[in-house]
Specification:
The chain is α+β, with helices and mostly antiparallel strands. The protein contains three helices and 14 strands. The strands form two sheets. Strands 2, 4, 7, 8, 10, 11, 12 and 14 form an eight-stranded mixed β-sheet that branches. Strands 1, 3, 5, 6, 9 and 13 form a six-stranded mixed β-sheet that branches. The two termini are 39 Å apart.
Length: 256
Amino acid sequence: MPTIWTNHPLYPGAAMLAAHVNELRLVVDEAGGTPVGGWTDGSTVTTSTPIRAKHLTELRDAVGEMWDQVGLGTLPSWSAPEAPGGPSLGTSATPLRADHVNDLRQWISEFETAVWAFLDPPVLVLSVDQIEEITIFVEAGDSHLTTVHLSLDFDPSLLQVTDGLGNPLTEISPGSALQDVLLNQVNNALGQIDYAAGIHTVPPKGSIGIASFAVKAIATGTGTITFTDGSGRPTVLANYLHVYRSRKSSTSITIV
């Protein structure tokens, strides 16, 4: 659910309030994006604290980190002619614009509403020869999902995709939500899973189980199973011709 902002959109000439900064910080805090060392002028800006360029630029940095961590890409440039503070980060002389706040709100809204591909469980601790099942989910919210193309990488020196008895497989197990499987292949030598599926009837929404697979730990070490967007092996979530902006979360694995 996107955040409901105070005085949105913020129009030119409107007063920039402590609440505008604090609302942005709260969303970032709840997403785990609080800057190392905390926020400038404390965790919340008081009504007696002047709003500074630093308050906005550090929010941009934090939101940029959030986007990067979930695979949303690089934040766009500020829509205003210049960044908050221009060449410096002063206080009373700093040119702060309503569009700076509106940009931050838009970027956070895109983070909140992005369709999310993730693996469950997100963390695994295994012993050598142990086998564990992983499910690929898409959290689509109110968006309908008609097609997925998922590319996953894993370290083949640590893991292999197998059946329940530990025999290597060349395919993963499709889910029931997207019934038309278009691509399904596992390359245990390269550590790659490529899967695509769609639906020609009513498309699902909400939390959608896409497929599942089992991994067998074959050596000690640490690694991840990661969605990729590399050349020729994209991760795409779509509703007919509309490709969603998507978040992606990996599974981290420790083998002892």
